[in-house]
Amino acid sequence: MSTSSGSSRSAELYRRVAQLGVEIADALEYAHQEGVIHRDIKPGNLLLNREGRVYVTDFGLARVAANDELTLSGDVVGTLRYMSPEQLNDSRRVDERTDIYSLGVTLFEIATARALFDAQDKPALIRQVLEAPPRSLRAVDPGAPRDLAMILLKATAKDPHERYSSAREMADDLQCFLDRRPVRARNAGPVMRSWRWCQRNRRVSMLMAAVMLLLSALVVVGFRGKQQFAKLASQKQWALYVSDIKRVQELNRQGNADEARRVLMRHVDDESRNFEWGLLLNECDANVPQVVVKNRVESLSTNFSPDGSTFVTTEWLPRAVVWDAKTGEELKRIELLEHGKFFDAKFAVDGHSLFLAHQAGCVRRWELSSGESIALSVPGGEERPSTYPTALAISSSGKWLAAAYREFAFDAPTTPSFIRVWDAASGEHLIRINDVGLQVHDIEFSPDGQWLSVASDDGIVRLVRTNDWMIGSKLKGHQGEVTALAFALSHNASTLASAGLRELSDGVVGELILWDVFSGRPLATVLYHEDMISSLAYSTNGKYLAAGSYDKEVSLWNPHDLTRVARLRVTHRP
After folding, report:
1. How is the chain split among helix, strand and coil, in percent rounded to 5?
2. 30: which strand partners?
3. SS (H, E, C) 310-346
């Protein structure tokens, strides 16, 4: 009994630390937006009121970002144990990421009652801050949450570029931890760890690089003749490639991006294609008309109307917004008096109304023309206060609406997820589906309406038959949580894509699997070292599988063998 109680208290402590981190990061984000950098975040400069709300105090060492000279103290300012490496090296390099570093050190100390760097004399402490890697939360307490440990490691990285770029990003990741959502911070893989080692051991790494360069030159000389022979042997293919490249250049000049992309895709598997292929593919994407949405708040979900003329976004703020797909202008803003945000929103098949998954614990139907809103009925009335609908799915015929419910508990969740299904037209509740895992991340109907797929944190993709709403099969291939699903857009819907996580000895990596729905066998699998995939979608022509990830990148994959054909970087515009 005592062990269980201690574990519960530890979980409560770590969640409280994360909540404090969100509040402090929000305060810092406001200061940073006003051009003020605190430069001395530490436990002694944080005050708690009786309600447990935290206040950031003592801006005596703060610097105005627009003026490097405007400060109330000397060049090296701050409390040494909480100072960032750049504060010790060159105070002129200090920016918002310095406060993020100090916040990470402070949260580590609050969570463990130990200093991140514990040297007792000043010279040794300075060496630790400048050279020693930060300790993981799990090195002090192996039972500490992995996601929170990764957040603190990212915040306290030596290199400012490896930290969160803003206090808002750190607050969002801490909120993801509190909401039981996947966080962006990930363990550094072997490549990143090697790079950091090289930075710490420059002389040795330069010598090793010189040796490797010499060996590479010998290898290149040895194989150059063989490569030239292979190139001559494929002159016909090379001539076709050159001809098509010239044609693509002309098509791009004419603005015919679709035809240019089609010609390029002929050579997606050619060994002879060079860097110009990728440049021209990016040029095709640049020729596609773009719409800039004037929204500075990060979206939770985005879904288009059936005719593609509008789309709806849900946000971290308690609102949903309908946008014009051509102009990017805001058409309608949906806000409720009840506290909480919308986790997901889907258009009804007629395009005249929206279904909204709300944090108050209900699914609502919102009529766009009149603004009338009604909550869909559930047997027994309201859900438990801690149980929210977080993902919605509508069958292609518009017959069914499904919602996945998850529990957001202060400590570990105890109530398994479940799914509710309604008649989308009448709002009549049809069934509650249980035994779908502890936490469901995504649900999708198949195009033919025969299956409802369910992505869960136990690594299993469940396929629910819609004729009797029973679980028909379980697709087992992921070793970590499954985060996103997408059916191929064909009538028989025999192929399903799923994205998830896999833990390796050197960290967590992403995993993408294609399934044959009827046999339950995986058709293709690929591991990738980028950030976690948060959404999947097939192109309407079935030629691409698009995967969006939390690192603001969209990858286009060949939907047959999972070879990557393009990577598109998403940037924020002012």
Report:
1. 35, 30, 40
2. none
3. EEEEEECCCCEEEEECCCCCEEEEECCCCCCCEEEEE
- Cβ–Cβ under 8 Å, residues 247 and 267: no
Structure tokens at 103: 């916040």
Ranked by mean pLDDT, which of 171-185, 195-209, 284-298 comes out on top? 171-185
More confident residue, 317 or 233: 317
* Alpha carbon distance 373, 376 (integer Å): 10
Return the exposure string of 62-99: e unless at least 16 CB atoms fall within 10 Å of the residue's CB, then b: bbebeeeeebeeeeebbbebbbbbbbeeebeebbbbbb
CA dihedral 120→126→128→134, nearest 10 degrees, is 110
Q: Report the 10 Å Cβ neighbour count for 362.
A: 20
Q: How would you class 523 by CB atoms within 10 Å of its CB: exposed for 0-12, middle for 13-18, buried for 19 or more?
A: middle
Residue 205 parent element (H or E): helix 202-233
Comparing CA positions, the residue from 264, 296, 252 lying closest to residue 573 is 296
What letter represents residue 401's amino acid? L
**389 SS3 class:** strand
The torsion angles phi and psi of 124, rounded to 5 degrees, stand at: -65, -40
Rounded distance between C-alpha atoms, residue 104 and residue 136, angstroms: 11
Strand partners, 211: none
**If we measure between CA atoms, which residue out of 134, 168, 186 comes closest to residue 24?**
168
Nearest C-alpha neighbor of 468 from the set 480, 492, 452, 447? 452
Strand partners, 419: 404, 433
Whole-number Å distance between alpha carbons of 106 and 110? 6
As given in the structure block, the two tokens for residue 283 are 């040029």
Strands 495-504 and 507-516: what pairing?
Answer: antiparallel
Whole-number mean pLDDT of the chain? 79
What pLDDT digit, counting tens, does each position of 478-531 carry? Answer: 888 899 999 987 655 689 999 988 776 666 778 899 999 988 999 988 877 556
In eight-state DSSP terms, residue 162 is: G
Residue 199 to residue 205: CA distance in whole angstroms: 8
Q: Which residue has the tokens 């130990």?
A: 114
Cα distances (angstroms) measured from residue 159 to each of 89, 95, 154, 503:
12, 12, 10, 25
- Please state, in angstroms and rounded to a whole number, the distance separating the CA atoms of residues 387 and 432: 14
Nearest-angstrom CA–CA distance, 172 and 176: 6
3 state SS of 153: helix
Flag whether the pTM goes above 0.85.
no
Convert the pLDDT of each residue in 329-373 to its tens digit. Answer: 888 988 876 667 788 899 998 888 999 998 878 899 999 988 888
Task: For residue 189, give Cα distances in angstroms to 192, 320, 409.
Answer: 5, 37, 31
Could you report how far apart the first and last alpha carbons of the chain are, in Å?
55
Contacts of 123 (CB under 8 A, 6+ apart): none
Q: DSSP secondary-structure letter at 227?
A: H
